Amino acid sequence: MRSCPVRGVQNLLVKHMSETGGDVYFHKFLPPEKTFKPSRFFVDSQQQYKSNFEECNKNSSVVPGVNVVGIIRAPHGDGKEAIVLVTPFLSDNIHIGDAFSLGLGYSLFHLFSRTIWLAKDFVWLAADSKYGTHAAVAAWLKDYHEPIFYHSSSFLKSKSLVDSLHPTEEKGPSYKQIDYNTLDDFQRAGTIAAALIFKVQENQIQTDKDNLSVYAEASNGQMPNLDLINVVNFLAVHRQGLQTRVESLFFMLSWKWLSVLGDILEWLGKVAFTLNPEWKFGLPSEEYVQGAAGLTSSIYHQALGIPTGAHGSFRDYQVDAITLEVSPRFSLENEMTRISYLLKIGRLLEGVVRSINNLLEKFHQSFFLYFLTSSSRFVSIGVYMIPFALLVVPLVILAAALCSYKSGGLIPLTKSDDGSVPRDYSELEFTHTNVLKSVSGTCTSGQDIDAINLGLNLHSQKWFNAAKDVLLVHLWAAVVAMFPSVICRLSLEASEMKLLIWAALSCLTLFVGSGISGVIYPKFGRWRETDKESHIEGWVALKAFTLGITTIGLVIMSVINFAAALLGVIVLVPMCLSVYPLKYILKASIMKRTLLMLLSISFIILAFPPFVVVALRGLFDGFSKASFADFWDWTEILWSWGSATYPYLFLVHVPCWVLCFRVLLYI
Predict the structure, then answer these.
(1) 616 partner at 20 to 30 Å CA-CA among 50, 201, 336, 464?
(2) What is the DSSP string of 176-200?
(3) How many angstroms separate the CA atoms of 311 and 324, rounded?
(4) What whole-number distance in Å separates Cα of residue 511 and Cα of residue 503?
(5) CA distances from 491 to 55, 488, 495 (A)
(6) Is 393 helix (H, G, I), strand (E, B) or coil?
(7) 161 or 343: which carries more pLDDT confidence?
């Protein structure tokens, strides 16, 4: 396979797949477009793919990727369901891992062509990963579910491309049986019941068992049905003797405090077992540590909203799919262990296909919302909904408390003798008696009633101003979210320069807008606020609206991507609860002043989005490699994948941070 020239791999696959009697065809696709267009952020990528094709059709220098697809029609099926196996390969440079993946894929394809128990169609997709495995699989799925009639295009039917894929010279009797005129005809099987993306890694691991890594996270925190992972884990561990694992944050395994916490939990489990032998929740300390690393990784990847493999493209069509990566304990060059290794992995894939084939309906009995701690343990939604609710409820309670704060402390105004309104609160007559008389209906003075109504209007105006400020900040954040679409059109390559331009435009629009609307700068109106209660009411109204809107945003995000909402609650709730105007913090006692200032400023800094990205990069790769330019790269990845975390960041997180910062600096 190493000596196969470009396009030779596809020809070789077509030759052998055609010998089995299955349906075979080529599927050509073009690289995806990466330009950020906010107007099409939530639009299906079909238009993006189509425009890409039409654009590349004018440019003959663009070479499409070529997938090879084979279909085995089920002898005992009605053609309404199918199982898909995907084996990616790099057509420009075949490695030994790709060769093993394709070899196993063909072995299964050949095996299923001779079986009589197959009740679902079997589809083998040899995905050309020239432009990435996800792009190859996503393009095929798009044509599979939403056909676009572009195959008559002169680009795909160009003579040079056809000649490179369809050789004209004689290659033997098997090649004579191939009808090259039909190799470009897209063919379909039934509704996809489940899919497996399978890859063999070349790197050798230093363990006593062959390793099987399972990747399940899809777009916006979507997960496949847990039963699919359970089937793979059971067959791999108990039938083939493999060591299965999920992606973990391995740097957490070296944390001493986490090991100490694991030892404490292990000891508590033993104590509980001695008290009641039926309490069997005690685990070794190592499993606690590994579970914490796996749980953190699962939450992070779900919150990021980016699929961890090509299985994410299947989940976009509500198809359960996972990626399986096998790492051998011996070198693949070792011929003594190669046969047993291939036999073991082949039996695993056959067992999974047979298990799915025996289903009368799609996976639906188990969980779809969960966090993986290991390949055999998980945290269900019934467990992690509790901490989310406990963290959100304080925001609601505090917002309600702020709304009712000093509700009876209105400031009724009294007009002067000439009927004019005084310009200073020192000239006002503040009496609660007037309020009580107005409520009881015993107020006989029309002058007092007018004064009370004026006070109520002033009170309502303050809440209206706070609502206006919150709305304007959210509009500003929405504009900031669209700046990358302009910056990407500039001929800039350095992420630092793009981030600086983005920050400059954001600050400029914020201060210009705040200068006009009075969001950041203090308001100067007809009446000056000299009464203490009036001052308090201003920031109280602003904070109450901030808490209310933030709570609504977090709840909505929990429906779209619960992991992102959970991380948002962990970051935003401490900041929202602790922030307090510095003007009043400085008037407190020394101990209270120090504590409040430390909490307010610390949580404001920790919730700053670029700081969060730098902290995560420092934990993953070391703080020596972390920089604020990573924030641009991170957000670029989010919008290029269409992650819902991107609009959440700028419609919920950033406005909340700016408004809390405004409360902190309230004048």
Answers:
(1) 201
(2) HT--GGGTTS----SEEEEEEEEEE
(3) 10
(4) 12
(5) 20, 8, 12
(6) helix
(7) 343
* pLDDT tier, 85 (very low <50, low <70, confident <90, very high otherwise): very high
Reported as type and span, the H/E element at residue 128 is strand 121-128
d(CA 615, CA 607): 11
Residue with the two structure tokens 């080529």: 26
Long-range contacts from 333-341, C-beta under 8 angstroms, 24+ separation: 333/96, 341/210
Burial of residue 258 (number of CB atoms within 10 Å: 0-12, 13-18, 19+): middle
The number of residues in the chain equals: 667
Q: How far apart are CA 476 and CA 470, in angstroms?
A: 10
CA-nearest of 646, 556, 560, 661 to 605 is 661
The stretch 252-276 carries a mean pLDDT of 87
Torsion 280-281-282-284 (CA) sign: positive
Q: Taking the CA atoms of 311, 312, 313 and 317 in sequence, report the sign of the dihedral they define.
A: positive
- How far apart CA 98 and CA 325 sit, in angstroms, is 12
CA distances from 421 to 170, 230, 256, 462, 527 (A): 102, 75, 68, 18, 9
Per-residue DSSP letters for 39-78?
GGSSS-THHHHHHHHHHHHT-TTPPPEEEEEEEE--TTS-
Separation between Cα atoms, residue 138 and residue 142, nearest integer Å: 6
Average pLDDT score over the chain: 79
Cα–Cα distance for residue pair 431/413, rounded to 1 Å: 9
**Alpha carbon distance 46, 611 (integer Å):** 36
What is the residue whose two structure tokens read 């299906």?
44
First to last CA, the chain: 72
CA angle 567, 569, 573 (to 5 degrees): 135
Banded pLDDT at 446 (limits 50, 70, 90): low
Least confident of 293-307, 372-386, 415-429, 596-610: 415-429
Q: What are phi and psi of 537, to 5 degrees?
A: -65, -30
10 Å CB burial of residue 508 (0-12, 13-18, 19+) is: exposed
Q: What is Dmax (Cα atoms) for the chain?
A: 112
pLDDT in tens, 227-236: 999 999 999 9
Q: Report, as an integer, the average pLDDT of 536-549.
A: 84
Say how far apart CA 138 and CA 638 lie, in whole Å. Answer: 17
The span from the CA of 478 to the CA of 319, in Å, is: 33
77 φ, ψ (degrees, to nearest 5): -120, 170
Helix and strand counts by DSSP (H, E) for the chain: 23, 10
Could you tell me which of 546, 565, 649, 544 has the C-alpha nearest to residue 391?
A: 565
| Burial class of residue 592, CB neighbours in 10 A (0-12, 13-18, 19+) | exposed
Helix pair 562-578, 381-403: axis angle to 10 deg:
30
Residue 263 phi, psi (nearest 5)? -65, -40
CA distance 199 to 321: 14
Q: What are phi and psi of 492, to 5 degrees?
A: -125, 140
- Beta bridge partners, 128, equal 89
pTM here is 0.82
Structure confidence at residue 415 as a pLDDT band (50, 70, 90): very low
Q: What percent of the chain has pLDDT above 70?
A: 77
Collect all residues with Cβ–Cβ distance below 8 Å to 196 and sequence separation of at least 6: 83, 84, 85, 86, 321, 322, 324, 349, 352, 353
